[in-house]
């Protein structure tokens, strides 16, 4: 009864971990969830007020399929202000979260047998969306030695005549790794040698950049890529608006029109009230961003420090987002206090949850093992307790 296309994909592992943690908590277990990729901050008040005003003003009807003109103009202004990129509203698409934007673009462009180069570690949904669209994901593995960032040689080796897209994400989910301008320029130089390859850049964590790291995006670094780049962003992470479900992208008009066609036959417009809230998010004060980032830096440093105290674990300090991606290469083959042999990172994460109540996502879900992902978008107290439990669990391995 089910389609062959659906048989090619698997459910989201991050959602599965979050669901399992919620079930254990509901059953009375003391669970600390470090799996969800969403800030614990409340949506800023000015954004909530804009949504309430939209409701009171009756702005609750259908809108244009891929966004109201006011939001599209705000997006154009944002790209100009933050990235030096010039777009018109006809080059902008608004969807129900960044995930829908990615999905629409792949569904609108992929043909059977065409390839998409995806650096690993990757966000869990990239390969499965490519498969669902009929394409073939080509995984290019980065490593701990390069701080989980793809090199130019690795990108060059992954590109074939069948390559249609290169998916790029910085700062990264799941590692938090951010590419410097020089590192990104090396990748765009490769792409300039392959004019048949388009760039799908996921900039969702743009404003979550720490220390002296400066965010940049491919079409900004190499303007010659402008006509074959889809620049994707959204309000979910930096603006603490995950449940509002607004993502957006800008790119060539022909591509945007094709994505609009897909959306017109699937969801139609994103929530009208959420769109007006997003207008305020992009146009309104940005003063809370540095404050939130200070909190994230403190939490990052706490987690990195405590995890690096564990013998057999190595945890790089990420440049952005709110994740760390420690390696457990030195723990593979050991046995937990409850008798579980740690043969891979999935077994490690399962044993950690069952024996300590700490929920993390195993590295194989992101295409690179043996690692696990911690989201530090929760309270300092919860993070300290969780890391203490991880330390105790690892100390008990023999």
TrEMBL record:
It catalyses: L-aspartate + 2-oxoglutarate = oxaloacetate + L-glutamate. GO terms for molecular function: L-aspartate:2-oxoglutarate aminotransferase activity; pyridoxal phosphate binding. It comes from the Bacteria. Residues 30-390 form the Aminotransferase class I/classII large domain. GO terms for biological process: amino acid metabolic process. CDD domains: AAT_like. Pfam families: Aminotran_1_2. Its EC number is 2.6.1.-. Keywords: Aminotransferase, Pyridoxal phosphate, Transferase. InterPro entries: Aminotransferase_I/II_large (IPR004839), AspAT/PAT-like (IPR050596), NHTrfase_class1_PyrdxlP-BS (IPR004838), PyrdxlP-dep_Trfase (IPR015424), PyrdxlP-dep_Trfase_major (IPR015421), PyrdxlP-dep_Trfase_small (IPR015422). Its cofactor is pyridoxal 5'-phosphate. Belongs to the class-I pyridoxal-phosphate-dependent aminotransferase family. Homodimer. This is Aminotransferase.
């Amino acid at each position: 009864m089910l389609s062959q296309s659906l048989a090619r994909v698997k459910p989201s592992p991050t959602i599965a971990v979050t669901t399992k943690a919620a079930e254990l908590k509901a059953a009375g277990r003391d669970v600390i969830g470090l799996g969800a990729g969403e800030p614990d901050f409340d949506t800023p008040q000015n954004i909530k007020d804009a949504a309430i005003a939209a409701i009171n003003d009756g702005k609750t009807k259908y809108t244009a399929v891929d966004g109201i003109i006011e939001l599209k103009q705000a997006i154009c202004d944002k790209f100009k202000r933050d990235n030096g990129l010039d777009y018109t509203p006809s080059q902008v698409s608004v969807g129900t979260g960044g995930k829908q934007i990615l999905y629409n673009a792949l569904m609108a462009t992929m043909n059977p047998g065409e390839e998409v180069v995806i650096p690993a570690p990757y966000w869990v949904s990239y390969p499965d969306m490519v498969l669902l669209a009929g394409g073939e994901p080509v995984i290019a593995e980065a490593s701990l030695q390069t701080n989980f960032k793809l090199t130019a040689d690795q990108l060059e080796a992954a590109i074939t005549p069948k390559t249609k897209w290169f998916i790029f994400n910085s700062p990264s989910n799941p590692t938090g790794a951010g590419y410097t301008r020089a590192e990104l320029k090396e990748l765009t130089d490769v792409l300039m040698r392959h004019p048949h390859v388009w760039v799908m850049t996921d900039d969702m964590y743009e404003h979550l950049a720490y220390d002296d790291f400066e965010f940049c995006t491919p079409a900004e670094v190499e303007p010659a890529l402008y006509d074959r780049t889809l620049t994707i962003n959204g309000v979910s992470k930096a603006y603490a608006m995950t449940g509002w479900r607004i993502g957006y992208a800008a790119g060539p008009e022909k591509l945007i029109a094709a994505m609009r066609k897909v959306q017109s036959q699937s969801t139609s417009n994103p929530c009208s009230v959420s769109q007006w809230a997003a207008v305020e998010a992009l146009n309104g004060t940005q003063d809370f961003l540095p404050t939130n980032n200070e909190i994230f830096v403190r939490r990052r440093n706490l987690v990195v420090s405590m995890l690096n105290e564990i013998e057999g674990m190595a945890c790089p300090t990420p440049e952005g987002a709110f994740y760390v991606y420690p390696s457990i290469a030195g723990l593979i083959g050991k046995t937990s206090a409850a008798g579980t042999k740690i043969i891979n990172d999935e077994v490690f994460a399962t044993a950690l949850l069952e024996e300590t109540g700490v929920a993390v996502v195993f590295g194989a879900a992101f295409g690179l093992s043996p690692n696990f992902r911690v989201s530090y978008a929760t309270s300092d107290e919860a993070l300290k307790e969780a890391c203490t439990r991880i330390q105790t669990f690892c100390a008990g391995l023999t």
